[in-house]
């Protein structure tokens, strides 16, 4: 092999602007897909859960994330007082509520 064959096999100098632009576009598309497939639905579920926990009322039956069933007898800003048996009341954080049942209707089930 001589020098002219080696030079001919070397990649030719091209303007890298086109490949750089396509790379930026691909990364932009990946970020958009990530946002619409993962981040946005997660934010929506979080807002729905916060709205649900704010709607808790006295008399609602609740199920906590630990599986305790009871009736709400008192409310504070961040806590609820749940009666789980006669003369047994337990204070829980609102975030510990998993399911709210009002009458016979399941108002919300959070995950």
CATH A-level architecture of the largest domain:
Roll
- How are the strands of the biggest sheet laid out side by side? 4-3-2-1-5-6
Give the domain tally: 2
Globally, the shape reads rod-shaped
Proportion in β-strands = 25-35%
First-last Cα distance? 69 Å
Give the total of beta strands.
6
> Regarding CATH, which class of the largest domain?
Mainly Beta
Q: What does the main sheet amount to?
A: 6 strands, antiparallel
**What is the CATH fold-level name of the largest domain?**
SH3 type barrels
User: Radius of gyration over alpha carbons?
Assistant: 29 Å
State the order of secondary-structure elements, H for helix, E for strand: HHEEEEEE
Mean pLDDT: 85
Total DSSP helices: 2
- pLDDT < 50 runs, ≥5 residues: none
Give an account of the 3D structure.
This protein has 111 residues and is of the alpha+beta class. Helix content is 41%, strand content 32%. The chain has two helices and six strands. The protein has helices at 3-9, 17-54, and strands at residues 61-64, 69-75, 79-85, 88-93, 97-102, 105-109. It has a six-stranded antiparallel β-sheet, with no helix packed on it. A hairpin with a 2-residue loop joins strand 3 and strand 4. The mean pLDDT is 85.
